[in-house]
Design brief:
The protein is α+β, with helices and mostly antiparallel strands. The protein contains 16 helices and ten strands.
């Protein structure tokens, strides 16, 4: 391909030689081709020079429009966002009704987090080309980000009707349904998207999100496995989300410092530790409670988020002390721990509480039926799973 120099262009415009518009259009096309070659080779500065030359040779033409688009893309490839925005703004002044420039500019504003300006551009794109499913989808997406769910649904329904064999509209409707808590409709729409395009990985991700929100771990894991089998980077995204939305659980607990949860009714606490064999002595003992995920530090270290109680049939399904009356010798344990520490590497809380011997040295306890319950939350603000928020020796985790 012959290279058109800037000097040649200057000569053509300053020469007394008559240059027809068709000649200029031909030169513009050549310069455009040169720019595309440079763009594809990653020489973006050189590409921009060629594209600007093409636009100057044949302003208001299709070549000029393409040149502006490539100039903006070249700037974006160099992370020069402001220059790309300015390029599209200039192009819109020349081609005010071209919806593709509006969408491209809206995409940039979306990427940089300026949803308000993005909405302006997407609305203009739909106004100038109402029959474009892509324009409708883009506007629907920005409405969704803005929480304008009714408007988003209207645009995405229109997009899906315009392009029945395109997954985008169904995918967007699934997003809206999930955002509004209509999980069954979300599942229906997302499965439609997958049936249209089984390679549209975002649909599997959104479907996994939906099942995770519903607490259906099995179904969410199915979507995770599909993404993993495809070696998709979205598998990690879904796995992290599933961990985030899952309610935390107590996995296990082990008594420490002389306290053991396997001792049963009427255990003489003097046998627990020699410190407790002497009258009126107290000992700070502990139980290490392991959680399924990272917990909120301030929540887990707050003693008032913990409860220590004697088991009952009504609350825990078993009798304290084998159902016999609690004797006067029974040691008293406060309902809240003295303090709690937390190891965020192992997700383990050490719950410290006092056990006291009586004046006669014959205090008893039923460690197996002492219940430890946590009422706090994890790092994402999720409260405990009620099926696994307490531990006792007789029942384990419940």
């Amino acid at each position: 391909m012959a290279i058109i120099s800037a000097d040649t262009v200057d000569f053509l415009f300053s020469s007394t030689t008559t240059t027809s518009q068709s000649q200029l259009d031909s030169l513009a096309n050549t310069a455009l081709g040169q720019g595309i070659d440079s763009y594809q080779n990653g020489d973006y500065d050189k590409a921009i020079s060629s594209f600007k030359r093409s636009a100057g040779l044949s302003p208001f033409s299709d070549n000029s429009a393409k040149a502006y688009d490539y100039i903006a893309k070249s700037y974006l490839a160099q992370d020069k966002v402001d220059e790309a925005i300015k390029t599209y703004e200039d192009a819109i002044k020349i081609y005010p009704v071209r919806d593709d420039f509006r969408v491209a500019l809206g995409d940039i504003y979306t990427k940089v987090g300026d949803a308000a300006e993005a909405m302006v551009q997407y609305k203009a794109a739909v106004r100038f080309n109402q029959n474009s499913a892509q324009n409708r989808f883009s506007l629907g997406q920005i409405y969704l980000k803005a929480g304008q769910f009714s408007d988003a649904r209207e645009q995405l329904q229109a997009a899906s009707k315009m392009a029945l064999n395109n997954a985008d509209g169904y995918y967007g409707l699934g997003q809206v349904a999930r955002a509004t808590g209509n999980y069954q409709d979300a599942i229906t729409q997302l499965n439609k998207a997958i049936s249209v395009n089984r390679n549209f990985e975002q649909s599997y991700l959104e479907l996994g999100y939906t099942y995770a929100d519903m607490g259906n771990v099995q179904k969410a894991t199915e979507q995770l496995n599909i993404l993993s089998e495809r070696k998709s980077s979205l598998a990690i995204t879904l796995k992290n989300y599933m961990s985030q939305v899952a309610q935390p659980k107590i996995l296990n607990a082990v008594g420490r410092d002389g306290f053991a949860t396997f001792w049963g009714p009427a255990t003489n606490i003097a046998t627990m530790d020699e410190d407790l064999s002497e009258p009126d002595r107290s000992k700070l003992v502990s139980i290490n409670v392991v959680f399924s995920k990272k917990m909120d530090l301030s929540s887990i270290q707050n003693p008032y988020n913990w409860g220590i109680s004697r088991a009952s049939i009504a609350q825990n399904g078993s009798f304290y002390n084998g159902g016999l009356d609690v004797p006067d010798t029974e040691a008293n344990i406060l309902p809240t721990p003295e303090y709690v520490t937390y190891n965020d590497k192992t997700n383990t809380a050490s719950v410290r509480f006092w056990i006291s011997q009586n004046a006669e040295g014959n205090a008893t306890l039923d460690p197996e039926h002492i219940v430890f319950k946590f009422y706090g939350k994890d790092t994402y603000g999720k409260v405990m799973d009620p099926s696994a928020d307490e531990y006792s020796g007789f029942s384990g985790v419940v």
